[in-house]
């Protein structure tokens, strides 16, 4: 998969795919990290930030930063409960394994290409 060129205009990284260890996801920047992040406990669930600033942001703005939208179904998901897929170091969150599997087969159907013409 490392040599696969996606329709998004990026090359798949060797570590693209399901992310089992959520401690390696900054849930503020929605980024897959190389090392575990800083845990933030909230309502009996654990969220992660990559640094002290991100961890503080989760505590200050939980309604905005602990939720995501499943790119396949459009469902609102809690980042602590969701399944995660990493693509080009970006984290995507899913409500079910079937939703994540559909995304994995063809991410370009669900993710817009990066804006190469910034304003």
Q: What does this 3D model show about the protein?
A:
- This protein is an alpha+beta fold and 119 residues long.
- The chain has a domain of 83 residues.
- Helices cover 18% and strands 28% of the residues.
- It contains three helices and nine strands; from the N terminus they run E-E-E-E-E-H-H-E-E-E-E-H.
- The strands form four sheets. The protein has a three-stranded antiparallel sheet.
- It is globular and about 35 Å long.
- The termini are far apart.
- 34% of the residues are buried.
- The N terminus is likely disordered.
- This is YHS domain-containing protein.
- It comes from Tautonia sociabilis.
Topology diagram in text:
Blueprint: E1 17-19, E2 25-26, E3 31-32, E4 38-42, E5 45-49, H1 52-60, H2 62-65, E6 67-69, E7 76-78, E8 83-87, E9 90-94, H3 97-105
Antiparallel strand pairs: 1-8, 2-3, 4-5, 6-7, 8-9
Protein name: YHS domain-containing protein
């Amino acid at each position: 998969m490392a040599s696969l060129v996606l329709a998004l205009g990026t090359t798949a990284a060797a570590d693209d795919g399901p992310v089992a260890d959520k401690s390696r996801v900054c849930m503020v920047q929605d980024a897959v990290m190389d090392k575990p992040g800083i845990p933030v406990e909230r309502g009996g669930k654990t969220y992660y930030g990559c640094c002290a600033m991100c961890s503080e942001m989760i505590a200050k703005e939980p309604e905005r930063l602990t939720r995501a939208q499943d790119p396949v179904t459009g469902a609102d998901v809690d980042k602590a409960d969701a399944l995660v897929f990493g693509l080009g170091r970006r984290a995507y969150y899913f409500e079910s394994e079937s939703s994540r599997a559909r995304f994995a087969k063809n991410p370009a159907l669900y993710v817009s290409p990066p804006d190469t013409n910034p304003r």
